[in-house]
Structure formats: structure tokens, C-alpha cells
Design a protein that fits this description.
The structure is a homohexamer of 70-residue chains. Chain A has 70 residues and is mostly beta strands. Chain A is built from one helix and six strands. The first copy, chain A, has one domain: Beta Barrel (OB fold (Dihydrolipoamide Acetyltransferase, E2P)), CATH 2.40.50.
Chain lengths: 70, 70, 70, 70, 70, 70
Amino acid sequence: MKISARNQLKGTVVDVVKGATTSHVRVDIGGGAIVTASITNESVADLKIVKGLKVTTVVKSSDVMIAIED
Amino acid sequence: MKISARNQLKGTVVDVVKGATTSHVRVDIGGGAIVTASITNESVADLKIVKGLKVTTVVKSSDVMIAIED
Amino acid sequence: MKISARNQLKGTVVDVVKGATTSHVRVDIGGGAIVTASITNESVADLKIVKGLKVTTVVKSSDVMIAIED
Amino acid sequence: MKISARNQLKGTVVDVVKGATTSHVRVDIGGGAIVTASITNESVADLKIVKGLKVTTVVKSSDVMIAIED
Amino acid sequence: MKISARNQLKGTVVDVVKGATTSHVRVDIGGGAIVTASITNESVADLKIVKGLKVTTVVKSSDVMIAIED
Amino acid sequence: MKISARNQLKGTVVDVVKGATTSHVRVDIGGGAIVTASITNESVADLKIVKGLKVTTVVKSSDVMIAIED
């Protein structure tokens, strides 16, 4: 599968915190940067997401904002 | 200002493509990775976003997905 | 690639309308239902999206709302 | 009420899983397709969403991505 | 129709700027506050959105962030 | 920090409901209007969000829809 979302950063899962319905997955994308994804528990189970897994974080361009220093 | 969005990656603007109402801003976040933001032309003007500007890309965790290789 | 987004509906592209930076892609998912995606022109070019192409529409669960009749 | 969101698919609720603050509602939209919505528990209570209820799933076009087979 | 999205603020359209595929609609919600919506041209035509129209701006809770002063 | 998101409404936190991973923060933006944000527990802790705190709710224009009366 190839998806239209422009932002695809590869990394390694460092942490999976499961809630009642929603999990937080933290991914080390290198250079000391961490990306956090809030996804369903079903997705975590379905994709067998665990600490150490190589993954790609995916974000649609319309969900990216730009900030500057004042 | 400090914002709740968990994902804040610093980088440098490499490209601004203006459309009729929407602009695409591409940011080099290092390590060869580019993040694309689709934002309003008003924001580009208001923040004076131009090639070479140091910026931070901001993404809410609920907008991040995880992909794996099959 | 396999992605965490829960909603993946298969269909056929019926229409691609290109704007200055953003395209609207309409997909017939069967049963008379059309799904419209607003994506970047770069994605349309990169995935070679044209009328008649078999595609999958992908939506994260946190982007789905529920409506009822009054 | 009539809303600007382009994607409105009718269906029947097959499942409501309540978490501490967030619920997952699964809707059968016909043809074997299920759409999952992640919404607040308050919304579930307010709209009285239960298994068997006829609902409409609503998604903004800017939240729809397109995927193709490799 | 009643929708699960928690944030529904009433106001009056003060401005509609049409792009090639995407329009920006600015709504005065009172108290000097303006809310800007980026929606498809099709929605603007379909809902007959023009300056002076009474509308409701609708936002899903998972799309709201919180910022504080440093 | 200054962010590209067009919609920034000031208000006061009236309520914080913590779930297992996700919190709901309700903000009184004046004129009887409440805005609800669904954010991570980490953000609530990091920004020390409590009842009574002065905050700004932030929403990207592409996440705003428009509704009209039938």
C-alpha cells in the first residue's frame, strides 16, 4: 500500500501506553526527536505494535501547523 | 505561548508554494527528512514564512498514524 | 505497508478536480456512496490518481463523527 | 441542521465500547463495510448512541486520504 | 440532524474567499471573536454560504488544542 | 511562540476530566460558550492545566466545519 499522506517518518517504538480505548505510541525518529501517536487499542493489537518495532509515523499535510519564535 | 500538541519538530523552511487560498510549506527537519504543512495564505503572510526561516512544525498526537511493513 | 487507521473503504476514482495546490478526489465506494478526499496536488501526481483507478479511502477513527436525525 | 462535511454515510450502530473518556462506535454502512468513530463519552450519552441505532457517519474531506496498491 | 461534535458556536458569516478548490469562510461569533473555516467550494455552493448568513461553526473536540502563556 | 492556526479563543478552564490516557478540558470562552478539548494526559500535566487557569483554545481552520439550519 502507498498512501497520499505526505509526511512519513521512519523510527522505532520506544513506548506503548494503553488506556481503556486509546493508546499512546511514542516513536524515536532519530536525532533525539520523539513523535507521539494517539491511536486505538485495536490498531495496536492489529499491527502488533510493541517497544522496539520499526514503524513509520504518518501525518496528513493538512494536520501540520507551523510555529515561529516571537 | 506553549501549546498542548505533543509533536514539535524544529527545522528550516525549504519551499513555500502559494495557491489561491492554501499554501504548502516544506520544512527540512534534519537527517534528510522533509515535513509538509498545508496552511492558509493568511498564516504564511502573518508569520512571514519564507524560504530559510527557522520554524517548528506542530502536530497533535491524535493526527499521527502508525504504519508497518507487511 | 499496513496502517493503523481503522477506516479503509475500497472504491474507484470518479473525478479529480485540481486546484492551485489542493485537489479534490471523488471515489465511488459502491452502493451509490461517494467519498470525497481533499489532498495535495503532489499526492495526486505521486500516486498517479486518475479517473477509473482502484483506490482505498483511508480515515483515522478520531476524524469520524456520528450524526442522528432530530 | 445541514453541515459542510462532504462525507455522510448512513448505517447502523453495531458496537459501542466506552473507555474512561473516549468511546469507540462501530457502524455498519452496508456491503460488509464497518466505519469506526472515536468520540467523547459525552456525545454517546447526549445522542443516546446504542447498538441498533440508525446513524450517519460524518467525515470532513480534508481528513480523507487515498491509498493505492504498490 | 444532531452531530456528536462538542463544539458548536453560532455566528454570522463576515467573509467568503473562494480559491480554486478551497474556500475560507470567516464567521463572527460575537465578542469580537472570528472563527475561520477552510472548506470545499462545493460545500459553500451547497449550503449557499454568503456574507451575512447565520451559521454554526462545528469542531470535533479531538481537533482542539490548549495553549498557555509562557 | 506564534502558531499558524487561525483560531485562537481565550478563556478560563472550568473542568478537567482525566481518563486513562486522554483528558477532556472544558474552557469558558465567554458569552456562555464552552469549548471542549480532547488532549493527552501528558499535555495536561506538562502545561499544569487546572480549573481556573487562563488558556487559549487553538484550532486549525481545516478542522472547522460550517452548519446551517435546514
